[in-house]
Amino acid sequence: MTFGPVEIFLVVLIAALIFGPKKLPELGKGLGQGLREFRSSTREVKRDLEPPVLSQEEQR
Question: Which sequence spans correspond to the domains of the chain?
Fold first, then answer.
């Protein structure tokens, strides 16, 4: 599912009406930090679940 400019504008407009324009930068910053932490955590889990790659010397 992709969001076009109209959908993004509507979301921002509704958020501005609910939270007020002064709170939007704080909400955006918090959302960005949360997404960064989520991506970092998923990368760590993915790395932990992958089998280690053995070099040619270790395979002998």
Answer: 15-47
